[in-house]
Amino acid sequence: MTNGILKGKRGIIFGALNEQSIAWKVAEQAHAEGATFVLTNAPIAMRMGEINALADKTNSKVIAADATSVEDLENLISQSMEILGGKIDFILHSIGMSINVRKGRHYTDENYEFTMKGLDVSALSFHKVLQSAMKLDAMNEWGSVVALTYIAAQRVFPDYNDMADNKSYLESIARSFGYHYGIAKKVRVNTISQSPTMTTAGSGVKGFDSFINYSEKMSPLGNADALDCANYCITMFSDYTKYVTMQNLFHDGGFSNTGVTQEVMDRFAE
Ligand SMILES: NC(=O)c1ccc[n+]([C@@H]2O[C@H](COP(=O)([O-])OP(=O)(O)OC[C@H]3O[C@@H](n4cnc5c(N)ncnc54)[C@H](O)[C@@H]3O)[C@@H](O)[C@H]2O)c1
Q: What pLDDT does residue 41 have?
């Protein structure tokens, strides 16, 4: 099902690591909907080389950028405008990483150097992307910037660890920067809060397998998968959502508004 709703739009897509990545699906869907874009990831992620297959498939160029480096971001954004032949209409920030999670550090025993690095990569990088784009006057009016987040920003999911704090910060940036970018350039900034999804970043969270099953049973529609998340991102990049900005949008099969489901209740009656 494609309708060409991104025809003529230019974008930058962060975070396609492998076929499981949400950003990978966004790139495939954006290409199918007629967009042209630049793919980017951290230099270290490039070494895996998988992104080149996606670039071939979507006819796009790849530019390495560490999203914590303003210099890298400014280079990426300037080069993207040159390659794509004009200002940018959409940006996807699909980046997350916690060293405390990776190293199995408990939330009550954080290594603060790890914490600061994770915060920089997962949240502050979003501000850096937005500020760099604004300073370079790189976005067209009614352009759309989306970052991916998780409901642990609002409610406690113990094993999500310091990523919960990172996501709160990320969502706050969408509101605050969305205000300023809206007034200055009519650019929209939102976060999409996605169901747990089997990807490299997702499966790094302790107990992810049982958690994804729990979430499935707690969502009236079931967990949303990466492809459907990509489709939601595409609508957010399109002109059909022009007045949506500064929002955290749940894409979670109803999980966020469900207290309990009958299926979960039944398990406790056993
Ligand atoms: N998988 C889930 O369950 C889930 C649920 C909700 C939200 N999200 C969010 O979706 C986004 C994408 O994650 P994913 O699940 O597709 O996993 P993923 O591992 O495929 O993507 C994470 C990406 O972040 C990139 N990255 C890490 N450090 C970077 C840096 N310094 N500069 C640039 N890029 C860097 C990685 O290379 C990778 O491509 C993340 O923000 C994640 O928190 C994921």
A: 98
Residue tagged 């060293």 (tokens): 99
Do residues 180 and 246 lie in contact, with contact meaning Cβ atoms separated by under 8 Å? no
Ligand 1: distance of its center to the CA of 127 in Å? 16
How many distinct structural domains can be found in the chain? 1
The verdict on residue 3 lying in a domain is no
The set of protein residues with a Cβ atom below 6 angstroms from ligand 1 is 14-15, 17, 21-23, 41-42, 45, 66-68, 94-97, 121, 148-150, 194, 196-197, 199-202
| HSE-up of residue 78 (Cα within 13 Å, Cβ side) | 8
CATH number at residue 58: 3.40.50.720
pLDDT digits (tens, 9 = 90+) for 87-126: 999 999 999 999 999 999 999 999 999 999 999 999 999 9
Residue 34 tokens read as 């007629």
- Does this model's pTM top 0.90? My answer is yes
Is residue 147 in a domain? yes
Quote the ligand 1 centre to 201 CA distance (angstroms): 5
Query: Which atom of ligand 1 has the smallest separation from the CA of 22?
Result: 16
Distance CA 135, CA 71 (A): 12
Distance of CA 159 to the CA centre of its chain: 20
> Which residues contact residue 1 at a Cβ distance below 8 angstroms, ignoring those fewer than 6 apart?
none
Cα 123 to ligand 1 centre (Å): 11
Token duo for residue 105: 């550090």
Tell the residue nearest (CA) to atom 42 of ligand 1: 96
Does residue 4 lie in a domain region?
no
Q: Which domain holds residue 47?
A: 10-269
Residue 5 lies in a domain: no
